[in-house]
Sequence to fold (649 residues):
Amino acid sequence: MNPALRTGLILCFAVAAAAAMNLQLGAVNLPFTAVLLGLQSGHENYFIVHELRLPRLLLALIVGASLALAGVLVQGVIRNPLASPDLLGVSQGASLAAVILIALYPEVSSLWLPVVSLLGALAAAMILWLLCGRHASPIKIAITGVALAAFYASAIDFVMLTRPQNLNDALLWLTGSLWGRSWEQLWLVLPAVALMPLAVGLCQRLNLNNLGDDYATTLGSAVPQTRFMALALAVGLTAASVAVCGPIGFIGLMAPHLARRLVGGRHQRLIPVVMLTGALLLLLADLATRIIKPPIELPAGIMTAILGGPYFIYLLKKVR
Amino acid sequence: MSLPWPAKYLVAALLLLVCGWVSLFTWSALPITAHEALNALIAPQPGSVVQTVVLDLRLPRVLIAAIVGACFAVAGAVMQGLTQNPLASPGLFGVNAGAALGVALASIFISWQTDLLLPGAAVIGGGCAWMLVMLLGAAWQPGAERGRLILAGLAISALCAAITRASMILAEEQARSVITWLTGSLANVGWDDYSRLWPLALIGLLAATLLTPALNLLSMGEDQARNLGLRLGRIRLLASLTALVLVAAAIATAGAIAFVGLLVPHMARAWVGPDQRKVIPLSMLLGALLVVAADTLSRGVVYPTETPAGAILALIGAPFFLYMIRARS
Fold:
């Protein structure tokens, strides 16, 4: 069998296994049969399985996949292994906008969250673009992004701490958690699902882009256009996931590197595999947050940071 | 300004005194006049409510803010002198996050209490984090890339902050107190905090002052400094320990206040030039001034709620950091 296909299948199995574990384990551990029965309404476990764990599982799949995909698009376009939406401040920009909305206008419907966080993410991406210009080195882009992210993060802290009455709502976003999410939030993240096929359509152009601007232009690819579309997709994917879960760090950085190790850099293979990898990472992180010390839950963003921090250091040693 | 340097000191000290005085009476739940605040210091009358507020709540808070500011600023100045890196500061090199992790773990897992427990844990945590950042960023090698060091600091900080939050949530703390403490707040300090803070801070500040000639030599480059008879290894160890003690004393009292250590030494250098013998004392004054001012503002931004002083400083400091990166690269 084709090795890339085999890797993909193995990953599919891993995601399915992790998903099954996510449905079974938690504050109450259920055997697998109980999970299956709990999917039917009226059963004693219906509430736990259908109302709590299933939407959360689906969210983890979608958010993990979109963050990872956004990471691949950003890394592919600016050819910078240290780039990802959260390191460039795009996630923090989106969540700053979301936190401002929650804290200052608590009466506004949460349906506006994706729109507002999309605006925040776009603004953050524009500011970074203006500050760095076209020909900046990878390290410079990364530290400018980090500095911007630090600024947005301190602004988030400021807004939250000056409005303590809305702190708990805002905290749900800030920490990057999947806790307490229900079917309602699943609708908010659907735009991300709609964007995913568009990324697949960009595969061929992204491959050409990897050859370098000159080659890609010679081969008939409109490089600036590709770059713009890929970045816009990445911003949209990030904004949609931030709107429901807050900034979950390091998945957009880790998943693309892991996926490239598994199947190499061709985007036709890379994109499906990276989505599976991202979903798997977030599923495992979310699972770990629930089973470390039930019934207390840690935000998933903390687990991904504990995993991702060391991985980032490893990458930093490797990138020259 | 073309003042002679003693006059600059005087200006900074006067500003600090005025700011401290303003901080004694503004934004209080109980109305206090400027005159009453002054009276409480000069001619204390026992039994007066206003005076109790000034002497037991406000005064320790102002003093602690001043000392904490001086500690962070001098720690930043020492780190910048030691590493010859203009971006060196406790916040960016992971020392703050590491020290906060040390304090969090010690207060969760160690039940016996001594005055030195939290500062000690902060020294160990901050020291480990700093060493890791320096090793990963290859900071001692000549021609080390500054951006890499900053990114290593970021990664270590993110890791430490995640573990800190996780351990505090698992220890069933309230989310609000965690955030307030992590951003650095002076809202709940009193005289007993003051008596724990000042001996350590005094030791650290004195040591930093004594180290200034050696730091001056270091600024000529390592080879030159060695030729002039400087023992590099010993100076590095002493200076690192000094910076760590300063940061640890401040963090154990007020939590991690970011960007003071980055901002203030640059302000001081812009004002009196690169001589460390002038920069470090001026950093003390300016750092104290900055934190006292931020703390006063922190009470007024959303009166009557307290905003942590660290949140305000971060809001000022982060754009400055951005400016520094763009100016240097």
Summary: Chain A has one domain: 3-318. Residues 3-318 of chain A form a domain with the ABC transporter involved in vitamin B12 uptake, BtuC fold (CATH 1.10.3470.10). The radius of gyration of chain A is 19 Å.
